[in-house]
Design a protein that fits this description.
By secondary structure, this protein is mainly alpha-helical. The chain folds into three domains: 73 residues; 44 residues; 59 residues, Arc Repressor Mutant, subunit A (Orthogonal Bundle). Helices cover 72% and strands 0% of the residues. The chain is built from ten helices and no strands. Helix 8 packs across helix 9. The protein is elongated. The protein starts with a helix and ends with a helix.
Length: 193
């Protein structure tokens, strides 16, 4: 009888097409509770098993929702298998943003996280989906964009302040990332305001 109840409640079956896992889990819980209500007087052990399974599903779904809410509120990337821990991600982001005006090596970032360079490179790639060098360049371009809108500094000074070797380096990297030159990008944004 226990087998029939767990099968009718959905154990051991994948969600049917068109139903997401959350809806599927709620259907399982509803089925378990209906089964419990109908057999409570007949078999205490089966009823207890159904209640325990329903409680487990609610705990798993509740923990997942709380974790998602914390990650969205804190702006953190989800923990990725083989990736950096949330505290390491925060340290890397802070270190990069504090040191954008100078050269930042992968060895330096690995040291900030307490990892070897090779382990750091793999974990960083898993967490950010780009290599550390590409992330640093992306952050430099973002800083350059903010500076170009907030100040009237010449592009050569903006380039050096963002850690680029010179204006032509900024122009090459900016062009690849944004699709237009820094001068054209700045002019278009300032004219539209």
């Amino acid at each position: 009888m226990a087998y029939a109840l767990t099968q009718s409640a959905g154990f051991g079956h994948a969600p049917s097409d068109g139903i997401n896992s959350e809806q599927f889990n709620h259907e399982i819980v509803r089925g378990l509770l209906a089964a419990v209500a109908s057999i409570w007087q007949l078999e205490d052990q089966v009823a207890e098993t159904c209640v325990q399974k329903a409680i487990e599903i609610f705990h798993v779904e509740g923990a997942k929702c709380q974790s998602d809410a914390r990650n969205m509120a804190g702006g953190l990337a989800r923990n990725v298998a083989g990736g950096l821990a949330p505290w390491q991600i925060r340290r890397v982001k802070r270190h990069v943003s504090d040191k954008l005006d100078r050269s930042i090596s992968t060895r330096e970032l690995a040291r900030v996280c307490g990892l070897s360079v090779s382990h750091f490179n793999r974990a960083f790639q898993a967490s950010f989906s780009i290599c550390p060098h590409a992330y640093i360049l992306k952050e430099r371009v973002s800083l350059a964009q903010r500076m170009m809108l907030a100040t009237r500094e010449p592009l050569s000074r903006v380039a050096v302040a963002c850690g680029f070797s010179d204006q032509s380096h900024l122009t090459r990297v900016f062009g690849r990332a944004v699709g237009e030159t820094p001068y054209g990008w700045r002019r278009n944004r300032l004219l539209s305001n």
